[in-house]
Design brief:
Radius of gyration of chain B: 21 Å
Number of domains of chain A: 1
Order of helices and strands of chain B: EEEHEEHEHHHEHEHEEHHHHHH
Helix content of chain A: over 70%
Strand content of chain A: under 5%
CATH class of the largest domain in chain B: Alpha Beta
Helix content of chain B: 25-40%
CATH architecture of the largest domain in chain B: 3-Layer(aba) Sandwich
CATH topology of the largest domain in chain B: Rossmann fold
Number of strands of chain B: 10
Number of helices of chain A: 9
Number of domains of chain B: 2
Oligomer: heterodimer
């Protein structure tokens, strides 16, 4: 019974102010993402879980997304309506509004909802399972929770994000049309005719690719935070809170990078 | 027959906090072992380490030639299929009913048809006395039923090793008695290696073949039940008698002078025999009560004879009191063989381990447990 070293009381510092702590946290998240990527092609694919999760994530996000998309489109339309009038470029109102919705508004709304509604739901679900020992039980039964639970959820949130982005684009454009034409007295013909003056199909695809990446990040962060929750119900609450905040930070940063890359790859129309 | 679990020099810390170190024990195949210990000594951590949910920093856990502390992840998942684990609250999947919960491992790991799955699940549910509750959700049933359902799920893949994390917690004494009988019956039927982590002294006195006690970040003692039940070790006696007098304090350990004063007071009152009944099934004295037999109609536990042969080989290494208690349980043929000295001493035989005397460094409350001859 030789004590290998003196047992130490937990110190004040204890790694808490260690300069490598944030690095370790992000490293763990990244390692988790790699684990997910590695489990992605593993058979059997959990189709049932994937369908269930897609339905689940869609059901918690569709309505809020549509409800957020309408005022978002409206705000853009209002801003652009008065701006174009000041500049004397009313004929471009429709075009600019479509461009704003497709390129920025709809990926951002998608990101907010996927992280805020879908991600938090995933994180809370996994966290509750974690503290009830369900995840441990699953591992002990010889089943990898990453393959069985995380992969279907990440894929589901990616799919739903792509679909949501389409939804937001449609609702945003329709909302913009409604506000511009009905409330601001714009001409419907001019609005519709200028649709494709500035926007191009690549704008839509860039939005979809952004949404796909956002869904991936939101799914992975939410699953990671859920599976590492600890310390009882409060731990789950903290995990959900952190998951949403971390996802927001990551999504806005990634959005900037993707936008910058997009402008390098795709020349603006008419330029 | 179950597989042996060989634990060597295992140490685990969380950050700078050491949970336990140098834990060495062998769970003999097919036998029931109980691990005791005051709250917070890391019994659950030990259980989680055994199934590879936590990684100890040092030492090894060898199960059927695989060291699960160091093996790769895919191998770990293979070894885990040998395990059935009963978690404290059953750890049932809250979104599935009992039938789906118990069928889950079969559906994930085997290619059995739905009718065969149904047959196996109903058989296991009957084994744990849950007939007719297939459609219930885990949230709708009592804690005792959740435990039994968790047990049925742990048994469904015919495990070689079954771990129980506090099977008695949250149950009334009658249900604990039923559960204990169930554990012994199961052992007779499937002959797997059982490890029970518990606080219940009644369980510890009557169910297991082997007993262990974790205390102060070490395995204080592990051996055949007779060894701990007759032990004069202060920590073991205090724990098995469920009394305040002794080295185990409410939160931390006590100083030596206080322990001595308490023990003197206890002796003045007449010792453990006159101390009445303690909580959690603790009874006065150090009698070795008879072990719980399987229910009538079930086969004999095969582990009993294996264990008798094993302890007969080690008979000469025990204290006289322990040896006497063991002799009382041995059949005549093994006794004569043991007395005739036919048996080779087998120092590495499982089920009896503690650190050798020369490794003992720190200030001791524990006297050398090895009976010196």
């Amino acid at each position: 019974m030789s004590a290998p070293e003196e047992p130490q009381a937990p110190g004040l510092l204890d790694g808490r102010y260690s300069p490598t702590r944030p690095l370790r946290a992000s490293g763990n998240l990244f390692a988790f993402a790699l684990d997910v990527a590695r489990s992605l092609p593993k058979r059997p694919f959990q189709l049932r879980e994937f369908v269930q999760q897609t339905w689940f994530v869609a059901s918690v996000t569709i309505l809020p997304t549509a409800l957020v998309a309408i005022p978002f489109g409206a705000v853009i339309a209002l801003q652009l309506g008065s701006l174009t009038r000041q500049l004397g470029a009313q004929s471009f109102t429709g075009s600019a509004s479509v461009l704003a919705v497709l390129r920025e508004a709809s990926p951002i709304v998608t990101a907010l909802l996927i992280a805020g509604a879908g991600g938090s739901a995933i994180c809370a679900d996994l966290g509750a399972r974690k503290i009830r020992d369900e995840i441990d039980a699953m591992e002990v039964l010889g089943i990898s929770p990453i393959q069985r639970l995380v992969v279907p959820r990440v894929l589901a949130s990616m799919l739903v994000a792509v679909l949501l982005n389409g939804l937001v684009s449609v609702v945003g454009v329709v909302g913009g049309y409604f506000f511009n034409v009905v409330l601001q007295g714009g001409t419907p013909g001019a609005y519709l005719a200028s649709f494709s003056a500035l926007a191009q199909v690549e704008d839509f695809w860039s939005g979809e690719i952004k949404a796909l990446v956002f869904g991936l990040i939101a799914g992975i962060v939410a699953s990671y935070k859920g599976l590492t929750a600890g310390g009882g119900p409060k731990g789950v609450g903290d995990a959900v809170n952190q998951a949403v905040v971390i996802t927001f930070l990551l999504l806005f940063a990634v959005n900037f990078v993707l936008t910058a890359v997009y402008f390098q790859l795709v020349p603006p129309k008419g330029a | 027959m179950g597989v042996a679990v060989q634990v060597e020099g295992l140490s685990k810390s969380f950050g700078s906090q050491n949970i336990w170190s140098d834990v060495t024990l062998t769970l003999p195949p097919g036998e029931i072992s109980v691990l005791l210990g005051p709250s917070g000594t890391g019994k659950s951590v030990f259980l989680k380490s055994l199934v590879g949910l936590l990684k100890p920093e040092r030492g090894s856990i060898v199960i059927s030639d695989t060291d699960i502390v160091r093996c790769g992840e895919s191998r770990l998942y293979e070894v885990r299929k040998l395990f059935g684990v009963l978690f404290q609250d059953g750890a049932l999947f809250g979104s599935m009913d009992l039938f789906d919960n118990i069928a889950f491992p079969l559906r994930e790991h085997t290619r059995k048809g739905e009718s065969e799955i149904r047959r196996i699940v109903l058989e296991k549910m009957e084994m744990v006395g849950l007939q007719g509750a297939e459609g219930k959700l885990p949230g709708e049933i009592s804690g005792g039923m959740r435990k039994r359902a968790g047990l049925a799920r742990a048994l469904v893949l015919d495990p070689e090793i079954v771990l129980f994390d506090e099977p008695d917690s949250g149950l009334d004494p009658v249900r604990v008695a039923y559960l204990n009988q169930l554990i012994v019956d199961l052992n007779a039927q499937i002959d797997a290696t059982f490890l029970i982590v518990t606080h219940d002294i009644g369980t510890a006195r009557t169910v297991p073949d082997n007993l262990g006690l974790l205390f102060r970040r070490h395995l204080a003692m592990f051996g055949p039940r007779e060894q701990l039940l007759t032990s004069q070790e202060p920590v073991v006696r205090q724990f098995l008698n469920g009394r305040r007098e002794g080295p185990i304090g409410m939160s931390e350990e006590k100083d030596v002078a206080q322990v001595e004063a308490e023990m003197a007071a206890l002796e003045a009152r007449g010792g453990d025999q006159h101390n009445g009944v303690g909580p959690k099934g603790a009874t006065g004295g150090d009698a070795v009560p008879p072990q719980l037999p399987p229910s009538p109609g079930l086969p004999e536990r095969q582990a009993v004879r294996r264990r008798q042969e094993r302890v007969a080989r080690m008979l000469h290494t025990y204290d006289p009191a322990t040896a006497d208690a063991i002799r009382a349980t041995l059949p005549a043929d093994l006794l004569t063989q043991a007395d005739a000295g036919v048996f080779e001493p087998t120092p590495v035989a499982g089920g009896r381990h503690w650190a050798a005397d020369d490794e003992v460094g720190e200030a001791r409350v524990l006297p050398a447990p090895r009976g010196r001859r």
